[in-house]
Amino acid sequence: MQTTFPTVTVLGIPFVKTTATALLSELQRRITQQQNTFVVTANPEIVMYAHDHSAYHDLVLGADFITPDGVGILDGAKILKQPLPERITGFDTLQALLAWGSTHHRSAYFLGAKPEVIAQLKPILARDYPGLVIAGIHDGYFQDEAPIVADIQEKQPDMVFTALGFPKQEQFIHQYRHVTKGLWMGVGGSFDVLAGAVIRAPKFWQEHHLEWFYRTVKEPKRLKRIAVIPHYLHLVRQQAKRMPPRG
Ligand code: UDP
Q1: What integer pLDDT is reported at residue 205 of this predicted model?
Q2: Is the CB of 191 within 6 Å of ligand 1?
Q3: Which residue's C-alpha comes closest to atom 13 of ligand 1?
Q4: For the chain, which has fewer Cβ within 10 Å, the N-terminal or C-terminal residue?
């Protein structure tokens, strides 16, 4: 991974040790200079998936920036005695890039989510980000990706957001990121949240690091996500034991 930031490696995944604001300005700088960029926002579930799937692990390491998306990653870094300053979530980064894109008339391509979510998303993007150029917008339930990739290549958007869930979204980016000179980022269920199909936890829950709890109660299918946390923390503690004392 090439990055301008120091990193903290949690179970083989090097996370950028920086703030959301500093990362954002670096991403904006790279977009402005047409530097091809791959951002992965990783939570413990992604870390565990990468731990168990070496091909996915390798392609995640090909990202330019891997951000700590989830309090579990901050906890892991703390256990390793190399604390990270803050969470940098996919959703917040997406929103910040869209706001910046709207102000600077940048273009974005949206790929993912269900067709009905995409239908809702279009007018919301036009309303909330009036200066943003929507280069393309396509649902994530396609049979053939070739026409979509050709469309992205033709439109040359500054930013491509894939909301296909992991590992699909990162696999797609790994395979096709070089068809444009812009930024590519997997954003999970963010289009559902933007379109209002899924409600994000109120500020109170976010600020108390309890968004995972709120969302699990609202969507019990998410339980399998938090089920990985105990095993994840166990493996991080083992990593901490193997590390020489820092000094
Ligand atoms: N999705 C998709 N194509 C697929 C599978 C999933 O577009 O083949 C979308 C799905 O509709 C949802 C997103 O990918 O919008 C995944 O959301 P999830 O809540 O699983 O991701 P998270 O935010 O937790 O990473």
Answers
A1: 82
A2: yes
A3: 189
A4: C
Of 157, 162, 96, nearest in space to 129 by CA: 96
Q: Does 164 sit in the ligand 1 pocket, CB within 6 Å?
A: yes
Calculated CA dihedral for residues 45, 91, 89, 37, nearest 10 degrees: 100
Q: How many A from CA of 242 to the centre of ligand 1?
A: 36
The rounded average pLDDT for each run of 10 residues, N- to C-terminus, in the chain (247 residues) is 83 98 98 98 97 98 97 97 97 98 98 96 96 98 98 98 98 98 97 84 82 76 82 97 75
- Kindly tell me the sign of the dihedral angle through the C-alpha atoms of 112, 113, 115, 120: negative
Q: Is the CB of 193 under 6 A from ligand 1?
A: no
Rounded CA-CA distance 107/84 in Å is 31
102: nearest Cα among 123, 59, 132, 128: 132
User: Which residue, judged by its Cα, is nearest atom 1 of ligand 1?
Assistant: 164
Please enumerate in sequence order all residues whose Cβ is within 8 A of that of 15, keeping only pairs 6 or more positions apart, or say none.
7, 8, 9, 42, 66, 67, 68, 73, 77, 84
Integer Cα distance of 46 and 63 in angstroms: 14
The residue contributing the CA closest to ligand 1 atom 14 is 164
pLDDT at residue 219, rounded to an integer: 74
For 155, 187, 209, the CA distances from 69, given in Å and listed in that order, are 29, 11, 12
Predicted confidence at residue 206, as pLDDT, reads 82
Whole-number pLDDT of residue 215: 76
- Strand (E) positions, 69-190? 107-112, 133-138, 159-163, 183-186
**pLDDT score recorded for residue 3:** 57
pTM of the model: 0.92
